Amino acid sequence: MVNNTNYLSVSDLSKHFGDFTALNNISLDIKQGEFICFLGPSGCGKTTLLRAIAGLELPSEGRIIQAQRDITLLPPEQRDFGIVFQSYALFPNLTVADNIAFGLTNQGIKKAQAMEKVREWLELVDLPNSEHKFPAQLSGGQQQRVALARALALSPGLLLLDEPLSALDAKVRAHLRHEICQLQKKLGITTIMVTHDQEEALTMADRIVVMNHGVVEQVGSPREIYQHPASEFVADFVGTMNFLEAKNEQSNLLSIDDYRFSSPTDISTAHVKVAVRPEQMRIHSDPIAGIQAQIKMFEFLGSFVRVECQLAVNNQLVQVDVTSDQLDELGLKIGDYCTLSWRSEDSLVFEGQAA
Ligand code: ATP
Question: Which of 28, 92, 125, 271 is the most buried (most CB within 10 A)?
Answer without folding.
Answer: 125
